[in-house]
Amino acid sequence: MQNFTDIPSSRTLSDSLIEILNNDKTAISCNSGTTFPTTNQQVGMLCYRGDQLKLYQLISTNPDSWRLIMDLASGIDTQFAAKLNAATYTAADVLAKLLTVDGAGTGLDADLLDGQQASAFASSTHNHNATYLGITAKAVDADKLDGYDSTAFVRSVNGAGPDASGNSTLNIDLSSRVAKTGDTMIGNLTLPSATITGTAPTLTMQDTDNVTRKLHVNSNLMGFLNSSDGWDMYANNSGQIWTSNYGWLHDRFAAKAAEDRMNAVSTLNCYGSLNNQDALSKSGATLVVQRNCNCNCDCRC
């Protein structure tokens, strides 16, 4: 029904009874009709189009704009069924729907991250190059890492590090390495210097097709040991040399010199009688030959 009358304030209530009843019926029927009302319009008023079985609402005038609110022709139950079921409108349902559009480029802007404002985090372009070690900088060799010496960590060899349990299994080929004890190597070994330390250090040289000999140091003596580990030859710190066959060589040389001198004196070419009296004495490490000759010849010896 579209029979709305604008009642002036000068009329009495009794005189306006018919108009009031018509106005009430018009409002109750939502301005029902086969066309939209064109007079006495108010934004927000409803209009039920009986010819369409649709309910409209006036949202603006001049020009008039009517918005469809409900299509009763398709069935109200069908329209409500297409709406979100309140029983499924839960926090979990909302989260599941948000996850489908989550990620970079979605435009979603959260207020907090793990309960922190954005001001609590540094941007990706932030660095402390001027004060601390830069992001792309390289540190020199440090003495410790988090208070621990390097011996507290498992080293990575050829990119292989510890497993999930912290155990390190490294595949290292040691076939070409020499063990610290009980190993054998072939080829030449070049050393700028070497130190053998011990109370009686010994360097063993093994001839595989003959006897083994040793270079030995003990009691301020350095020399060679025979195959029975007895001294074969040694020198003391004063440069004196001893051998198992001749003893101290300086004594041997002195005795030999004395012997040669005696032989030289004994071969005099005299013409006459010769009475030789020899005496051998020692002065320190030197042997002295004393000879008294009584010659009766012309050689003036």
Written overview of the protein:
This protein is an alpha+beta fold. About 0% of the residues are buried. It starts with 16 loop residues before the first helix and ends in a 5-residue tail after the last strand. The protein is rod-shaped and about 185 Å long. Residues about 265-275 have low confidence and may be disordered. About 15% of the residues lie in helices and about 20% in strands. Strand 10 and strand 11 (about 285-295) form a beta hairpin.
Summarize the model shown.
The protein contains 4 helices and 11 strands, in the order H-E-E-E-H-H-E-E-E-E-E-E-H-E-E. The protein is of the alpha+beta class.
Task: Set down the secondary structure blueprint.
Elements: H1 17-28, E1 46-49, E2 54-60, E3 65-71, H2 76-81, H3 91-99, E4 202-206, E5 212-218, E6 221-225, E7 231-235, E8 241-243, E9 247-248, H4 249-265, E10 273-283, E11 286-296
Antiparallel strand pairs: 1-2, 2-3, 4-5, 5-6, 6-7, 7-8, 8-9, 10-11
